[in-house]
Amino acid sequence: MSNFLDLMIRPFIACLVLTGIHAYLGLHVIKRGVIFVDLALAQVAALGATIGFLWGFGLHSTESYVTALVFTFIGAAIFAITRRRKPLVPQEALIGVVYAVAAAAVILVLSRAPEGGEELKALLVGHLLFVEWSEITKITFLYSLIGLIHWLVRKPLLLISQAPDRAFAKGYRVLWWDFLFYATFGFVVTSSVEMAGVLLVFSFLIVPAICGVFLAKDVGARLTVGWMVGVLTSMAGVVASYIWDLPTGATVVCAFGVTLLVTALVRQLRDTHEGTQTNF
To answer: Among 39, 94, 115, 137, which residue's CB has the most CB atoms within a 10 Å radius?
Structure first.
């Protein structure tokens, strides 16, 4: 038992911190209909980190982090500028293009670096099992600060996410509010990808939020469900990775997949019992 606690307490605490901010941001992402913005920004951050690595920075060094952050801000600006009241094409299509180009660019950059395959694997799954207390402290402070900012400006951000037409009609500077959202989102993604990798960050963002939408109606209840799902699934994934000696990050991602399937079945059974139908 002591070996388990010594090895897994830090990954578990890190998962709790990641759940806290990502479940909230995931509700915004779902309402905005930009499901893959997290993957796109994560991939842009990964591109910045790999370019920093090619320049001689350590993959988890301060210089690499700053480079990734600069690239993420560029991505945030692109997503804010391309937001239109009546777009010619869905913004999700543009986000998909950014993701594909950034992913291809990462492969090209790493092809010029020795041990590129290992670095690509690290970007995908992170180093959650070996996370340090200093990293946990850093992201806890950063995410608390971002959470405070979002709480202070919650009204315009929620209105733009839930009813963008009303926000435009009221004369809100949607472009600037969008940039604030994506920039703070980028801070979170850059820090999370460095620790947990692209796949796990996406899972933390989307799965708890979807489960909240499936099981609750108002924002507060959905956020509560999302937090509970994130915490319990993280716990199950961390324990399973220890018991079966599996990679922690990948195991937690698969645990989120199982949780989403179970939640969808629960919602379907509830709707069948009530005589309604769910359109997933």
So the answer is: 39
The rounded distance, in Å, linking the Cα atoms of 55 and 121 is: 19
The answer to whether 234 touches 19, Cβ cutoff 8 Å, is: yes
Please give the C-alpha separations between residue 140 and each of 96, 106, 143, in angstroms, as whole numbers.
Answer: 30, 28, 5
User: Distances from the Cα of 125 to the Cαs of 17, 84, 120, 225, in angstroms?
Assistant: 17, 34, 9, 25
- pTM value is 0.85
pLDDT digit string, tens, across residues 49-64: 888 877 877 666 788 8
Contact 47, 106 (CB under 8 A): yes
Query: What is the H or E stretch that residue 279 is in?
Result: none
Helix 133-152 to helix 174-196 angle, to the nearest 10 degrees? 160
Six-digit token pair at 37?
């913005």
Q: Which residue has the higher pLDDT, 193 or 117?
A: 193
Q: What domains can you pick out in the chain, each with its CATH number?
A: 2-274 (1.10.3470.10)
